[in-house]
Amino acid sequence: MYSSVRLTKRIKELLIIAVVVCTCALVVFPIYWLINSSLQEESALFTSPPSFIPRMFSVRAYRDLAVEGKMLRWIRNSLFVSVSTVAITITFGTLAGYSFSRFRYKGRTALSLAILSTQMIAGPMVITPLYIVFTRMGLIDTLYALILANTALNLAVCTWLMKGFFDTIPREIEEAARIDGCGRMGTLFRIVLPLSMTGMVTVLVLGFFVAWNEYLFGLVFISDQDKWIGSVGLASFVGSYIISQDKIMAGAVIFSLLPMLFFLFFQRYIVVGITRGALKG
User: Where are the alpha helices (DSSP H) in 42-189?
Assistant: First the structure.
């Protein structure tokens, strides 16, 4: 009887391990295939059956991208837009979240719901109004248009995530600091923000991913190739008559490298941050 129970338990463990291994394989294989394809000659990508291990490594696609210089410029543009978007979003989202969490004033609920309702509007629906506004402001064909558009889409999520974090911090800590002579802003920057650092990192990473992967705004608002962002630049390799498969794969590897490093470094903050930030509303 005891051996039968052990055998059943062992089978369950093996099944769980098998499911985990299969899931990891499904997740990792596209990344492997992307890197594998970027290290082969373009003619080898169309062989049948496909080569899962390159017969001859080639870095020609990476060399061509480096010589042309456009891909690196597009990556820099994406980095500038993403970092600027995150900086503005964290600044205003943190202050707004703290206001909704700590202060009680007339219209607070209506204002918070109005901010939250902006998440119900799809990006394509605001393309035309934003284009008209940015045209009148002289921002079309500039990276500042992308920064403002991405900030508008990310601000609501940042505000509500930070509000959830601030709600988990006991008010007694702030009251004790106020009694010791610390002002409202001093309490925020010296006490509250360090305690909510996990939430700020979560907002930073999520906001960075959204801005980094943005395509629609970059396609509509930017026409100058030197000001394209990475996602738009990658799409330009797909022409009407010629598709540079090897350059697409190599460019995708370069474009995906920084977000992968971000996720690997901050993944524990993302999981903890989303969980804690969603506990209270």
Answer: 60-68, 70-102, 108-117, 127-137, 143-167, 171-179, 184-187
